[in-house]
Amino acid sequence: MSEETIDGTNGCSKVRTGTQNEAALLALMEKTGYNMVQENGQRKFGGPPPGWEGPPPPRGCEVFVGKIPRDMYEDELVPVFERAGKIYEFRLMMEFSGENRGYAFVMYTTKEEAQLAIRILNNYEIRPGKFIGVCVSLDNCRLFIGAIPKEKKKEEILDEMKKVTEGVVDVIVYPSATDKTKNRGFAFVEYESHRAAAMARRKLIPGTFQLWGHTIQVDWADPEKEVDEETMQRVKVLYVRNLMISTTEETIKAEFNKFKPGSVERVKKLRDYAFVHFFNREDAVAAMSVMNGKCIDGASIEVTLAKPVNKENTWRQHLNGQISPNSENLIVFANKEESHPKILGKPPALPARLNGQHSPSPPEIERCTYPFFPGTKLTPISMYSLKSNHFNSAVMHLDYYCNKNNWAPPEYYLYSTTSQDGKVLLVYKIIIPAIANGSQSYFMPDKLCTTLEDAKELAAQFTLLHLDREHSLFSLDLCRRIWRK
């Protein structure tokens, strides 16, 4: 054991209390052969392990562990996480007091071991009444930069970002849906490391930083969901982007059928992207290699496989707007009783005067408002750049949910009937195009409403409740704040 290792361990053990002590850590190191050092507020166990040769494990091999009891340390934690596989490195975040900070990062030697750790140790009872959370950890090296002048080219944006931040590797810019000579007003900046990206974000995030005289928006790019190879081997749907608005589904189908007539089952196009469904996976893969980079109606298209979502790693959102520790991007409502349209933010009806009388109306919902002073500077933004807690209605939540999962917007179809007392009753059927080919092709509640707003809200609410327990859902690679490999 090196002198540095001994000193690092001793430095921590002096202030540690309870069952965890220097002897326990030394015994763990002697048993496993791993070294342990403390630096920059974290204690590293391994990295690499004894006898390791070659580069570190690839991306996707690390998991994040949260809700660790503050008086629990490696001698208790490492044996638990070794159940899932060989640990390359265990990093426990530490306080100056000697307690841990409640979370750690565990890197395994393979992606399969990391996924197994998530399956068997997420919500694991580490101590009586103490449950840890385990989910995938990704070193984010990419930033989302919004409010960029649309006439700027990739080279100009790359040069400018290199001037104001360090470690820039690449810039990804997408052409406008309506004018391919312009960008879409945002870009993704790739950095050489997570640290470089974090330092750049820290510099740019205050909201006062300007590029070309414009105040820019800065945030982390949302990582694309990790999908195992076995699941990807079953995908037979292609995602096609950068199409012209004027290009029709018939044209797309004809172009993709050229290499093998009759291979395309159907095409669904929305704005400048489309989903091409094939009868056979082999034809989908062949078409992808042939069609990627081809021109359709003058536009150079990008073609990739649609990526299924791992439902075990989807995020849940509670009615109070809080995200659970083991969730990702899924927004659902806890139960039907609590998911009343009024709770979901049904807009209050304004009193209307009928024959000089105010019509009955529900009490107005209290709103949080601020004064709007003349001269206040306003910045155009997309609703999808907001957080989920900015939305109250289920209709908005569903639209946001589909966008966050990189799906096409939900489609609403209105139906009516007449009640026994002559009232017109309404209900919406909702189709999610990305999953419409599954066993459940649509979502429709079992209750009818007397107003259009209530019917739409109820249908959206019903759909959100069922999305997380139906089907394997396709996550389609859209252009907004995602990873591209």
Automatic annotation (TrEMBL):
Give a yes or no for keyword RNA-binding in this entry. yes
Where found, per UniProt?
Cytoplasm
Signal sequence span is: none
What does the UniProt record say this protein does? Essential for male and female fertility, playing a crucial role in regulating germ cell development by ensuring the proper progression of meiosis prophase I. Regulates mitotic-to-meiotic transition in spermatogenesis by forming a complex with MEIOC and YTHDC2 which recognizes and down-regulates mitotic transcripts for a successful meiotic entry. Required for normal synaptonemal complex formation during meiosis, binding meiotic cohesin subunit mRNAs containing GCCUAU/GUUCGA motifs in their 3'UTRs regions and positively regulating their translation.
Which keywords does UniProt give here?
Answer: Cytoplasm, Differentiation, Meiosis, Oogenesis, Repeat, RNA-binding, Spermatogenesis
Classification via SMART domains: RRM (SM00360)
* Molecular functions per Gene Ontology: RNA binding
Example of a GO biological process term: spermatogenesis
Cellular-component GO terms for this entry: cytoplasm
Name of this chain's protein = Probable RNA-binding protein 46
Show the coiled coil region(s).
Answer: none
Name the gene: RBM46
Whether RNA-binding counts among this entry's keywords is yes
Subunit-structure text:
Interacts with YTHDC2, MEIOC, MOV10, CNOT6L, DDX4, UPF1 and PABPC1.
> What positions does the domain RRM occupy?
61-139, 141-223, 236-308
Against PANTHER family, the record matches this protein to: HETEROGENEOUS NUCLEAR RIBONUCLEOPROTEIN
Q: Name one Pfam family in it.
A: RRM_1
Q: Which domain of life is it from?
A: Eukaryota
